[in-house]
């Protein structure tokens, strides 16, 4: 939980006490007053670096002045940074560390710890542990760091080399507990319960059950893999399973026509060897990270050193969670789509002073859509390319199917805006910045969805997001909020299209509200006054633009259920482009266009585009 400090001058404080079984207190405090008899000295720091204080040196305390800076606490940082420069040094783990807290988990499939505190373990030998307990007064989950050389509740951990936390029922000194341990950063945040095929039973029974369950499973897996293989071949779907540098090179060299940044992978580089990348200039800055144009070296030839241009998103150490979220979203191979930024690989980079997290993706010379629209007026045909590709990108993100019909986890972007959309060489768009995105996994509980909170950029937030009243019972609600944001972006594109007549300078939606509007100002405008960006009557002079505006209005409806789906918007753009071609052909052959405005009202199709209303009537 985060809260505003009540009095000005207060700073964020964390106190970690080992004496009572490891507790972390987090609170606001005025540094002019002592706390536990200690005067804070470090409260001007931007991050919370633990120092041992107190009469007997028994309290680890830190303070800092950035928002929520006491959420991550750093132990003994100077020595850690010095040592981490040494290759071979074992870095201390980041683990969830909430000790005991209530859990809604009922031990089926996987559960989130719901622990909001991430701590750096005190000792490099410590790993992450979670213990789940079924209790009549309510289930609980403990999360903490622990040295596996020592028993915990009389249990010696055996699974601490695992990358994920897989629960096993073990007999401890105080009875049975479900316990798991693992060695990846924050791996104890999600706990996995065993499937009915590996129940908590005596070993001999377990072995026979495993045989009974695993043999059919293996046969099933072989059938599925073969089917998948044939299916991939028939679909001619280029896959991006990148596992080593030579593969990455081969894939990047495959030319994406004129775009210099053709990368074709949506997979993780599991190779520990880092790519030979040289950062060039900074091209963007987001909430969590900075984006650089970079050179991916590909050897040298007589003509000199060869390289491929890529984009590198650099997250500082503190933004590990945003990097992890975006990396997890990208690592789903089914996300690969021409209107989603091509992902190459994710890396952890250690430097002498700190650790950084990188995401390496395709580079798009034209930059983001907001900058593009500020610099360019677009034609009607270009508006169709920009709008259609945006809708197709969002539709793919939201879809539970790949274009080949395979299964895919739908994803909500949750921060769609023109600065999170890139413009490719052919003026089609691709979505980027998945730091706040949410996988709409059907196993997510209402609690888990509710915990994901009110996120995004206030200017682009749908009314139900501004009011924190999303219907958590239905995952479609998250897609509907994206469609609202997409409508604002479509409006931005249309406002810069020369088909509307007099094109003004680029302005963001709701530009009159404020430069960086907060949620409260947006609520006044979007909910109290029911305002939306202005669509002047003159825009309807062009029948295609008129149709786009109708679509925009159906997408920013106050009622989320009444909004169109992204797929429907994509289909409308396809119809517009087809009608455009038809009307061009018919005008060159002096034929009469077939769609009339009254026809359009009856159906969900769109009127003949690419014509002014005058031209359209004239042709009729
Ligand atoms: N800005 C943010 N991401 C970018 C990318 N991949 N290419 C170009 N500019 C960007």
From TrEMBL:
The record's subcellular locations are:
Cell membrane; Membrane raft; Membrane
Q: List the disulfide bonds.
A: 95-128, 98-115, 105-111, 121-145, 165-180, 182-187
Cellular component terms, GO, for this chain's entry?
A: membrane raft; plasma membrane; receptor complex
| EC number assigned by the record | 2.7.11.30
Q: What InterPro entries does this protein's entry cite?
A: Kinase-like_dom_sf, Prot_kinase_dom, Protein_kinase_ATP_BS, Ser/Thr_kinase_AS, Snake_toxin-like_sf, TGFB_receptor, Transform_growth_fac-b_typ-2, Transforming_GF_b_rcpt_2_ecto
Q: Where is the composition biased (Polar residues)?
A: 584-597
Region of interest (Disordered), residue spans: 582-620
Look at the named UniProt entry and state the broad enzyme category this protein falls under.
transferase
Instruction: State the Gene Ontology terms under molecular function.
Output: ATP binding; metal ion binding; transforming growth factor beta receptor activity, type II
Q: Which UniProt keywords apply?
A: Apoptosis, ATP-binding, Cell membrane, Differentiation, Disulfide bond, Glycoprotein, Growth regulation, Kinase, Magnesium, Manganese, Membrane, Metal-binding, Nucleotide-binding, Phosphoprotein, Receptor, Serine/threonine-protein kinase, Signal, Transferase, Transmembrane, Transmembrane helix
Query: Which Pfam family, any one of them, does this sequence belong to?
Result: Pkinase
Q: Which residues form the active site?
A: 415
**Which GO terms are recorded in the biological process aspect for this UniProt protein?**
apoptotic process; cell differentiation; cellular response to growth factor stimulus; heart development
* Topology class, membrane: Single-pass type I membrane protein
Query: Which cofactor(s) are needed, names only?
Result: Mg(2+); Mn(2+)
Instruction: List membrane-spanning regions.
Output: 205-231
Which family is annotated?
Belongs to the protein kinase superfamily. TKL Ser/Thr protein kinase family. TGFB receptor subfamily.
Return the PANTHER family for the record: TGF-BETA RECEPTOR TYPE-2, TRANSFORMING GROWTH FACTOR-BETA RECEPTOR TYPE I AND II
Protein name as annotated: Serine/threonine-protein kinase receptor
Q: Identify the species of origin.
A: Chanos chanos (Milkfish)
């Amino acid at each position: 939980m985060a809260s505003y400090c009540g009095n000005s001058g207060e700073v964020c404080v964390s106190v970690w006490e080992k004496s009572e079984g490891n507790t972390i207190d987090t609170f606001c405090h005025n540094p002019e007053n002592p706390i536990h008899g200690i005067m804070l000295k470090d409260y001007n720091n931007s991050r919370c670096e633990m120092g041992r204080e107190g009469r007997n040196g028994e309290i680890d305390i830190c303070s800092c002045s950035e928002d929520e800076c006491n959420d991550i606490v750093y132990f003994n940082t100077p020595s850690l940074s010095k040592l981490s420069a040494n290759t071979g040094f074992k870095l201390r783990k980041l683990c969830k560390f909430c000790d005991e807290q209530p859990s809604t988990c009922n031990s089926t499939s996987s559960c989130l710890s719901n622990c909001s505190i991430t701590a750096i373990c005190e000792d490099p030998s410590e790993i992450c542990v979670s213990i789940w307990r079924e209790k009549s007064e309510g289930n609980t989950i403990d999360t903490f760091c622990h040295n596996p050389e020592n028993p915990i509740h009389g249990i010696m951990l055996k699974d601490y080399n695992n990358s994920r936390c897989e629960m096993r029922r073990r007999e401890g000194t105080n009875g049975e507990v479900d316990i798991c341990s693992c060695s990846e950063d924050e791996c104890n945040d999600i706990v996995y319960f065993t499937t009915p095929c590996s129940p908590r039973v005596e070993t001999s029974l377990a072995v026979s059950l495993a045989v009974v369950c695993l043999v059919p499973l293996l046969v099933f897996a072989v059938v599925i893999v073969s089917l998948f293989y044939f299916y991939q071949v028939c679909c001619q779907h280029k896959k991006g399973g990148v596992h080593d540098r030579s593969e990455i090179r081969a894939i990047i060299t495959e030319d994406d026509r004129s775009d210099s940044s053709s990368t074709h992978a949506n997979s993780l580089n599991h190779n520990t060897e880092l790519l030979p990348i040289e950062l060039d200039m900074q091209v963007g800055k987001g909430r969590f990270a900075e984006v650089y144009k970079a050179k991916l070296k590909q050897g040298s030839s007589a003509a000199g050193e060869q390289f491929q241009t890529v984009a590198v998103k650099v997250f500082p150490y503190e933004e590990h969670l945003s990097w992890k979220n975006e990396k997890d979203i990208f690592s789903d191979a089914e996300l690969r789509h021409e209107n989603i930024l091509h992902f190459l690989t994710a890396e952890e980079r250690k430097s002498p002073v700190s650790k950084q997290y990188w995401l390496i993706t395709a580079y798009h010379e034209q930059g983001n859509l907001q900058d593009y629209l500020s610099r360019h007026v677009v034609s009607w045909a270009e508006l169709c390319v920009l709008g259609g590709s945006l809708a197709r990108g969002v539709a793919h993100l939201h879809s539970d199917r790949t274009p080949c019909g395979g299964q895919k986890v739908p994803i909500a972007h949750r921060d769609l805006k023109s600065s999170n959309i890139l413009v490719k060489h052919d003026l089609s768009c691709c979505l980027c910045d998945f730091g706040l995105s949410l996988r709409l996994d059907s196993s997510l509980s209402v609690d888990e969805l509710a915990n994901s909170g009110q996120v995004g950029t206030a200017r682009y937030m749908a009314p139900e997001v501004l009011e924190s009243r999303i219907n958590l019972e239905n995952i479609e609600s998250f897609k509907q909020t994206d469609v609202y944001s997409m409508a604002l972006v479509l409006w931005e594109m249309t406002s810069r299209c020369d088909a509307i007549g007099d094109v003004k300078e680029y302005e963001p939606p709701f530009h009159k509200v404020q430069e960086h509007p907060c949620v409260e100002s947006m609520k006044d405008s979007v909910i109290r006054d029911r305002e939306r960006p202005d669509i002047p009557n003159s825009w309807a002079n062009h029948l295609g633009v008129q149709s786009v505006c109708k679509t925009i209005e159906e997408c920013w409806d106050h009622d989320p259920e009444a909004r169109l789906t992204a797929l429907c918007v994509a289909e409308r753009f396809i119809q517009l482009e087809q009608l455009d071609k038809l009307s061009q052909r018919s005008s060159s052959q002096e034929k009469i266009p077939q769609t009339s405005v009254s026809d359009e009202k009856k159906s969900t199709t769109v009127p003949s585009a690419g014509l002014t209303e005058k031209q359209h009537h004239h042709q009729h």
